Amino acid sequence: MIYEIRTYRITPGSLAEVEKRFGEGYEHRKKYSELTAFWHTEIGPLNEIIHVWGYRDLAERARIRGEASKDANWPPKIGEFIQTMKSEIVTPFPFVPEVQPGKMGPFFEIRYYTLKAGMLPETAKGWEGALPERMKMSPVVLAGGVELGTANGFVHIWAYSSLDQRMQIRDEARKKGVWPPPGGGGRLITQETKIVMPSAFSPLK
Fold it and tell me: How high is the pLDDT of residue 186?
């Protein structure tokens, strides 16, 4: 699987209307392929919507997007509210469970890292060893390298039932030595994070 993460910056005050129109359009789009998740930012860069789509490969993505573009109801009628658009293709680590619809949040943390060149294999190795114990504390939604988009990008997404739970788990993981994986800091150039919440029609909540 690959996942396309599409991030749109929208006009302040437009979120309710954007989600309404997107949800209406999605009723027609999902016959081609279903969303993985749809979120809006709560903490971090404000006025963003993030929609995630899963595909078997780039060829399937191209085929489905081509078919959907011929539908009169897609893309959703939100162009007047969009200020910027960003798309990244992420290939998940093979040891990370495939994303499934259902309730995992409702708070999700999306962490964007820029790795030093050539550090993705070492990062994956460290994660493979440490992730099983970390996942006993809270689930990982997605983790993998950016194939198309930000060079040397690395994205990981975590689910929490509350922001208090997030703080407690992260503190406990550090104290127990469960997380972060060894050597991680030395592989990093930049780190960014945002807290997002799902829309009513998001398959992942």
Answer: 87
